Amino acid sequence: MEKSLTFAVVAPASGLLGMMGPSTLAAMGLAVEEINRSGGVCGRPLSVQRVDAGLGIDAVVQGIRGADAEPAAIIGTHPSHLREQLVERLDGRIPYIYTPHYEGGEHHAGVYAIGETPERQLRPAIARLMDRLNLRRWYLIGHDYVWPRRAASAIVGAIHAGGGKLVGSRYVPFRHLDFRDDVRAIATSGAEAVVSLLIGHGAVEFHRDFAEAGLSGDVVRFSPDIEENLLLAIGPSNADNLYSCSGYFESLDMPSNRTFLARYRARFGRLAPLQSSYTQSLFEGLWFAKALLEARADNPRWLDRAGEHFAVHGPRGAARFSDQELRRPTYLAQAHETRFDVIETFPIG
């Protein structure tokens, strides 16, 4: 038997995003099984070395480098600040596929950021909400790191373009879990809508505090980082007037997603962990890494030439990779208890 090829998968099993761990693990397992049934990667069986993104940069680097053999690729499903730290610590020789939505602008050699960027994800969604719900006064709250800070410029630009105004903003550290003072500040600001760029456990606590203060009936919340696992943790009674925008929702009614979920539930059961944009992006990232390595095997510089592209197939259909971006539609959805229902599709521009 051919010696296996190893991918390092850096995804949360603990920490701020630890509640997504079971979903990412299941998505990873299904992808590896299906890749191996399809012939593996470059004709070799695929094995995976899982590294917990919740342990911090030193432990992550040690986990990647501590394998018996150097991984052929790194697939990262984790917050942006860890990506920036990893890029500094790695030398670019190993392809690094970064899968979630992010702030954009990633151009380091050997890094392939395939998630949605603010221009495609946030701007059209805010414009549509402003038009649909006549929202003009906005408040922004986010964790204090690179994704919220850089995404804010696109958000504020969209608000101003729609004739709106940002009436307040605040960035908080990851350890901040009591949002009662922040909710009071929002209540006194006169905001009609809030953009939340909080992630993980912090996001859950914010939305619970927000609803418990009685604001959810009057103030719209737009939170692109809320996915199905976090929505479940927020609770159905706290999800009124809550919207998200993403490249994937488990409720997407399209043939490729129905087929994916049927395979997924057949493998892991009817009560399998929820899939979301964040977790299924890992599934896509593993298939992307396979396509990348096989394209490089045929022509080592194929992906380095501007304008060349190839298609990657996944739960949300085929997506074209071109000019260092995986291009696909995004969707605006409204929370209804513990699920998201898509209300608007933004096609590829």
User: What is the name of the CATH superfamily of the largest domain?
Assistant: Response regulator
Helix percentage: 25-40%
- Report how far apart the termini are: 46 Å
Q: What Rg do the Cα atoms give?
A: 20 Å
Q: How is the main sheet built?
A: 7 strands, mixed
The name CATH uses for the topology of the largest domain is Rossmann fold
CATH A-level architecture of the largest domain: 3-Layer(aba) Sandwich
Calculate the mean pLDDT score and round it. 93
Structural class: alpha/beta
Shape: globular
Q: Topology as H/E string? A: EHEHEHEEHEHEHEHEHEHHEEEEE
Top-tier CATH class of the largest domain: Alpha Beta
Strand order of the largest sheet: 7-6-8-9-10-14-15
What's the domain count? Answer: 2
Show unreliable segments: none
Number of strands: 15
Strand content: 15-25%
Number of helices: 10
